[in-house]
Write a structure and sequence with these properties.
469 residues, alpha+beta, Cytochrome Bc1 Complex, Chain A, domain 1, 2 domains, six-stranded mixed β-sheet, 17 helices, 12 strands, 17% strand, Insulinase family protein, signal
């Protein structure tokens, strides 16, 4: 059953309103900001079962609802290079049938519990999340254990999923944003597994029930997994049910190898993906960065927010508000278990492609040469902390946040420390991040567009090589 989107959409609109607040000067007689409120700290009860499965439980008052997330180390980065992202297909088939239930019965069981279920393969882990009314906690965990530990991969469901995946791939291949992302991933990570995070026709052709069972057996091991349970129940009851449903899970075969450390630096590339007849250019401008456990992670988040993480950011104010080149330019930081990337995403009309690249160079250079004003720094920290706190008030989001921390090698205490560390970032640290990660000379430039319309503007920025995603 697909997860309802209304609450997520409402939160997204709320956060957009926060990030896109008006930049008109405020009245001088407004009162000062009030004191920061204490960060709500979830009390995480922790236990490791005899089979090695780590279990985190957060008893929580409120809605009569339980959210469960199972994270299994070894996502798309663990897939064979010849069949990239194959584990994403396997994850999507987990709830399509088990030894005792077919897909229809699984969907009906979730519906009866007021529940939902989703599974995805991320770069470093396969993550399964489910929720239901708290009265059905035992039933939900039983269903989750059945689908994750005993999937049957029925031939009919595999064939249907395979056909749908192939059609979805064809649609994505024509999307300029997907093409640009493939190119920036290749420029950033080169041959590292993080560059292989999308399905190919070869991957889809390799999908069979037998292949899915073998892939499942290689990935799913209790000593490489975390179960997070949050909701209206006692820790004692949650641990008891977790033991009942997952305690008999045993590892089989050899564990998957850990992904190697991703590059922290890369030779900047200039890549051009041809899209004949395009009236705009999709620009990606970035480089490798860091893992989430790196000491620079928090100050770099603040620096990125100042650069392009909100409506008052330098990127938006210059490229959108002042120049009018793009409607929604932004920059982002992706931090995973063994590395990450940072890049700007700007989509512009053809005739201002070169001018936009010039502005990107200036804006990135400003992160080292121009210290953030007090208003920039305070605004960025409040935005970063506020969005973080608001997002994690949602119970399901909190479960996934804690699971992501574990996957990234962070302790559960990072949740409560994050906002405190955000608020301690100073202007000197922001400029240090600018020197370390935002120097224009270190950034790759990716363009998706019509060469005939833009090539005359590209000469100042080096030689662009053709790239086929």
């Amino acid at each position: 059953m697909k997860k309802p989107k209304l609450l997520v959409l409402a939160l997204g609109l709320c956060l957009t309103g926060l990030a896109h607040a008006s930049t008109a000067p405020l009245p001088k007689d407004l009162p000062a900001y009030g004191p920061d409120k204490a960060v709500p700290v979830p009390q995480v009860a922790q236990r490791t079962l005899s089979n090695g499965l780590t279990v985190w439980v957060v008893p929580r008052d409120g809605l009569p609802k339980v959210d469960v997330t199972l994270a299994v180390l070894g996502g798309t980065a663990a897939d064979d290079p010849s069949t990239p992202a194959l584990s994403s297909v396997m994850a999507g088939l987990l709830n399509e049938g088990t030894a005792s239930l077919n897909a229809k019965q699984i969907a009906e069981s979730l519906q009866a519990m007021g529940g939902n279920y989703e599974a995805n393969a991320k770069p470093d882990a396969i993550v399964i999340s489910a929720s239901a009314l708290s009265a059905y906690t035992a039933e939900l965990l039983h269903l989750m254990a059945d689908t994750t530990l005993h999937p049957s991969f029925p031939a009919q469901e595999v064939a249907l999923h395979k056909a749908n995946s192939l059609q979805a791939l064809k649609v994505r291949e024509g999307n300029p944003s997907w093409q640009a992302q493939r190119a920036i991933d290749r420029a950033t990570f080169d041959t590292h597994p993080y560059a292989r995070n999308s399905l190919t026709e070869a991957s889809i052709a390799a999908v069979t029930p037998e292949a899915m069972r073998a892939l499942h057996a290689a990935h799913f091991r209790p000593e490489r997994s975390l179960l997070v349970i949050i909701g209206r129940m006692s820790a004692k009851d949650a641990f008891r049910i977790a033991e009942q449903q997952f305690g008999a899970w045993k590892a089989e075969g050899k564990a998957l190898a850990e992904a190697p450390q991703a590059p922290r630096e890369a030779m900047p590339q200039r890549l051009l993906v041809t899209r004949e007849g395009s009236v705009q250019t999709n620009i990606r401008y970035g480089r490798p960065s860091l893992s989430a456990s790196d000491p620079d992670f928090v100050p770099l988040n603040v620096a990125n927010t100042i650069l392009g993480g909100g409506f008052t950011s330098r990127l938006t104010q210059d490229i959108r508000e002042d120049k009018g080149y793009s409607y929604s330019p932004f920059s982002m930081l992706n931090a995973n278990r063994v590395g990450g990337s940072s890049f700007a995403r700007v989509d512009v009309r053809n005739e201002v492609t070169g001018a936009t690249l010039t502005e990107l160079n200036k804006l990135y250079e400003s992160m080292a040469s121009q210290a953030p004003s007090d208003e920039e720094l305070v605004g960025a920290k409040r935005l970063a902390a506020g969005i973080y706190l608001l997002r994690n008030q949602i119970q399901g989001s909190l479960a996934q946040t804690l699971a992501n921390y574990w996957v990234q090698g962070l302790p559960p205490t990072f949740f409560s420390n994050y906002v405190t560390e955000i608020n301690q970032v100073n202007a000197d640290q922001v400029q240090a991040m600018g020197r370390k990660y935002f120097s224009p000379k270190d950034q790759s430039i990716i363009l998706v567009g019509d060469p005939k319309a833009i090539e005359a503007q590209l000469k100042p920025f080096g030689e662009f090589k053709p790239f086929k995603p």
